[in-house]
Structure formats: C-alpha cells, structure tokens
Amino acid sequence: MGFSTTHLIIFLVIIVVIFGTKKLRNIGSDLGGAVKGFKDGMKDGTDKAADAPATEPVQQVSSTAPAAKETIDVEAKTKV
C-alpha cells in the first residue's frame, strides 16, 4: 500500500500552508547551497591532496631538563 498522487498533493498543500512559500523557498535554496558547497569542498579536497608537495617532518618536543627550567609556577607568584 503506497501513496497515491492525491495523497502526495494533499501532503504538499499541508506543508505549504504550515511553512509558507517564502520559507520553503529559503529552505530549498539553503539546502541547494549546502549540497553545492559540499561537492565543491570534496572536489577541492581531492585536488589539493594530489597537488600538495611533500611536507617536512614535524619535530617533536622532548621533555628534557632545559624545558623544566623555563617553567614558571604561577601559583607560587600569587601566594604571599
């Protein structure tokens, strides 16, 4: 048991009465813009990934003694 054409027409009329044509037009344009932006983003992402040069490796920060000497204890300065 599916929806007939008359069911769909009645459903659309109720939706138009509840939301109004201006609101439905805004929702449609916002949804279309979002889909277009998503597609453009997916296309740009694949283009940038293929064109991107190899980056230099990131240098990790080590937790050695010189870093500990530069640490400032904020609570010690505020205590009297």
Q: What is this structure's SSE topology?
A:
Blueprint: H1 5-19, H2 21-51, H3 65-69, H4 74-78
Overview of the molecule:
With 80 residues, this protein is mainly α. It has one domain. The model has no long low-confidence stretch (mean pLDDT 77).
Indicate the overall shape: elongated
Instruction: Work out the helicity level.
Output: over 70%
Low-confidence stretches: none
How much of the sequence is in beta strands? Answer: under 5%
Instruction: Give Rg in angstroms.
Output: 29 Å
Oligomer, anyone?
single chain
Distance between the termini: 80 Å
Brief rundown of the structure:
This protein is mainly alpha-helical and 80 residues long. It has helices at 5-19, 21-51, 65-69, 74-78.
Give a quick set of tags describing it.
4 helices, elongated
